[in-house]
Amino acid sequence: AQSVAQPEDQVNVAEGNPLTVKCTYSVSGNPYLFWYVQYPNRGLQFLLKYITGDNLVKGSYGFEAEFNKSQTSFHLKKPSALVSDSALYFCAVMAYNFNKFYFGSGTKLNVKP
Amino acid sequence: GAGVSQSPRYKVAKRGQDVALRCDPISGHVSLFWYQQALGQGPEFLTYFQNEAQLDKSGLPSDRFFAERPEGSVSTLKIQRTQQEDSAVYLCAGEPSGGEGTGELFFGEGSRLTVL
């Protein structure tokens, strides 16, 4: 069974500080992991993905995520947050047959000036 | 169009009414997905099309839900005899490839359904 957990409903960070949005997963087989972002009144947008290879993956808008197999985590990070990063972030795992995603419940990121 | 277009953006229905939600994906996108997003939750899978073929409908919550994509482009999600628990945002997403895809989905803005 595939599932994703985002333990924080909300993350607050000051502009310029580093940010982390947490995600843990449970999959059978190799994990295919994703981060999507949802801005207000906008559709979800792809940020980055891990399929194989380097554990640190880089994505759009300066975001990166680290795949940690032993901790079954895929935390989203950014070295210096911007107010414009404020949005709803979803972690997701793709099923082995590539036909469906399992999304977490989302984490609202608030970046204050 | 340049992106995924969904209509209507907002729909209010009385309990028991039938509704139809339309998705116009990016031209050429082989795969099309429907997701249901309840308030405060992540999107949940409903169904998947590869071209006109509905390959997976395991997420449809009941036989009141029906989806089609007859010509492999525009898709319609139909909900019959709507119930209050159907209130949610219905998201459509496309992907250029079929089968072993990239996982990089292009989402529409969603159709928000409110059942009174």
Q: Care to describe what's here?
A:
The complex is a heterodimer of chains A (113) and B (116). With 113 residues, chain A is mainly beta. Chain A is built from no helices and twelve strands. Chain A has one domain (3-112): Sandwich (Immunoglobulin-like), CATH 2.60.40.10. Chain A has strands at residues 3-5, 10-14, 19-21, 24-26, 33-38, 45-50, 56-58, 64-68, 73-78, 87-94, 101-103, 107-112. In chain A, the strands form three sheets. In chain A, strands 2, 5, 6, 10, 11 and 12 form a six-stranded mixed beta sheet that branches. Chain A has a four-stranded antiparallel beta sheet with strand order 3-9-8-7, with no helix packed on it. In chain A, β8 (64-68) and β9 form a beta hairpin. Chain A starts with a strand and ends with a strand. The mean pLDDT of chain B is 93. In chain B, a hairpin with a 6-residue loop joins β4 (31-37) and β5. Chain B has one domain (5-115): Immunoglobulin-like, CATH 2.60.40. At the A-B interface, β6, β10 and β11 of A face β5 and β10 of B.
Write the SSE topology.
The complex is a heterodimer of chains A (113) and B (116).
Chain A: E1 3-5, E2 10-14, E3 19-21, E4 24-26, E5 33-38, E6 45-50, E7 56-58, E8 64-68, E9 73-78, E10 87-94, E11 101-103, E12 107-112
Parallel strand pairs in A: 2-12
Antiparallel strand pairs in A: 1-4, 3-9, 5-6, 5-10, 7-8, 8-9, 10-11, 10-12
Chain B: E1 5-7, E2 10-13, E3 19-24, E4 31-37, E5 44-50, E6 53-56, E7 65-68, E8 75-79, E9 88-95, E10 106-107, E11 111-115
Parallel strand pairs in B: 2-11
Antiparallel strand pairs in B: 1-3, 3-8, 4-5, 4-9, 5-6, 7-8, 9-10, 9-11
